[in-house]
Amino acid sequence: MFLKNPKLLLKSNSFKLITWYTVFFVLSSLAINIYAYTVISSFIYEQSRSEVEEDILELEEIYEESGIEALRLDVFEDENDPFFVRFITKEGVSPVLRIPQEWENVNPGYVELSILHSEDGWAYIGDVRDEEEYEIRTLLLADGSALQIGQTMEKREGLLSKIRRVYLFAIIPIVLLGYIGGLLIADRALNPIKRLINTLESIVTDAKIDVRVPEEHTDKLHDELISLFNTMLDKIETLINGMRNVLDNVAHDLRTPMTRLRGTAEVALQSEKSEDLHEALVDCIEESERIQIMLDTLMDVSEAETGSLKLNPEKINVAPVIDDVVDLYSYVAEEKDISVHTGFPKELYVTVDRSRIRQVLANLLDNAIKYTPSGGRVDIEAIRGEKEVRITVKDTGVGISVNELDNIWDRLYRGDKSRSERGLGLGLSLVKAIVGAHKGYVEVLSKPGAGSSFSVHLPV
Amino acid sequence: MRVLVIEDDKKIASFIRNGLKQAGFAVDVAYDGEEGLNLALHEPYDAAVVDIMLPLLGGLSVIEELRRSKINTPVIILSAKRTVDDRVKGLEIGGDDYLTKPFSFSELLARIYALIRRSSGAAESTRLSVGTLSMDILNREVIRDDKKINLQPREFALLEYLMRSAGRVLSKTLIMEHVYDYNFDPQTNVVDVLVCRLRNKIDKDFEKKIIHTIRGVGYVLKES
Q1: How large is the ipTM?
Q2: Which of B83, B190, B196 faces A329 most closely, judged by CB atoms?
Q3: I need a surface site. Which of A163, A255, A301, A325 has the fewest CB within 10 A?
Q4: Contact between residue A311 and residue A458 where contact means Cβ atoms under 8 Å apart
Q5: Which residues in chain A have their CB less than 8 angstroms from residue B193's CB?
């Protein structure tokens, strides 16, 4: 699928990421706050109850030790005391009754009922208008009388509502924090992708294939993505350059023979003699054959170099292949009075494309015989190493000078001494390319005047 | 003998037709796959030359359809692609031979002859003779003007091939393929050397030369 605007997509992706992060952050902060609020409110509740509990036990002690008068004295001692206090006798009379100002609106009937409806000695009542809530602790004494202490819940509720308000206001910074956090995370997560997209865009729009994504070494996953991406770009670049080279070379290398072809035909057309025409036609055919072979070989070399050459590798014994090639050239060598010697084990198993390897060996042997003078000698040897099979073609030919050694593998390069020989100068580049496509390598040793030794190393 | 040529390029089609006519064949030409298939299904042909890239119906489909209809006319595939895979595919679906463009006409002709001979099922004779030259294949004996000639195996194979195709030009590629079982064209003089050796034995000591070089095309054995 080809995305028309990857940046837009990225934006929507980063928006999603930020939103999710914010929502998650706010929800989890809320959960923590709600939990904290519950803990605090229950703590306050316990606190206020235990205060009343202490007071009522103290009053009980005073009553039991010093009697009702002492109790009354104690109860009315502090005028600002906010507690409701009542002492009820067995008969239902309340000789001690303290009603603070906040309790003005409390229905006395409710207070009576609270004695009956208390659970664990505690009861809640409302006022006449149902605005405030009060709680009353009732303690039944040993002699059948009872003590009651009540407190308004206003204070407690006020405190809790203050806390609630604090939490409510805290939500705004929490949301803000969540959003900023999301922004940072989205940025961190999507930035490498953004850079990838930028690089891709510059490649697509400017057709720049040499651009690479800078490596950052911040995050393993990102680094791997970037390095994979760069590797992919490398491969594409090799391929594209290879194809460009093919086109350049084909165009360049074909122009010369095409010119000859055209020239021959044109000159022939101006001639009246039929022998000339015949001769020209023959030349044209020969020239076109050269063009064809050159085209095929150039394609082979370029395909092998860029890795697009289709090989049909199979595990074969190359010894008979070498024999075949030697047999192919036996007459050629014989005619030139060159002796061909072989030395290799009967079994040399290696995974290769049979016809391509035959082509490689034929090219090397052809060269060896071509550049060896009459009476010379060519040796083909092969050995099997631990990791490779090495096939060497050694001649006693003219040799290659040091400054030519580096160039012999180049396409269309022909040494000074080989210009007089037939050929296109493509043989060795094809050898190198095919061996390279088999993940092997080629080597050459040479001494001008004494001969050359070409070896092909094929991984087992 | 009748040959069907299915080729959409008018120039190529016409040079194949003219060449085959000169060689004594009756030739029908179709310029697209459908027309070609139609002809091949309804007319009897000794051989067909089918291009792969054709309008309306591809060459491979034409061959597949023919084979499905149990028509076994030998087919030579023409293709601009020269990868091994294409060759293998073409032969797998029922093609009998494969030729890459550009090709030489003499090679096409030689291949057509070979296919027709193969499909006719006629037993190959074990005695060949051209003029005063005769060959006994079973005893591996070659005699010219009552003189026995000793040939080495490859020389013998080449001479047999030339004699069987007497009068027809054989390209170097065909000779490589036939004598050495080699199907690519190395830039070598292997064939020239082989022909030269054969000439030394067959022609050198005789006044009448029978192995001729057709420059740019190949070699032919004939009494001139």
Answers
A1: 0.76
A2: B190
A3: A255
A4: no
A5: 331-332, 335
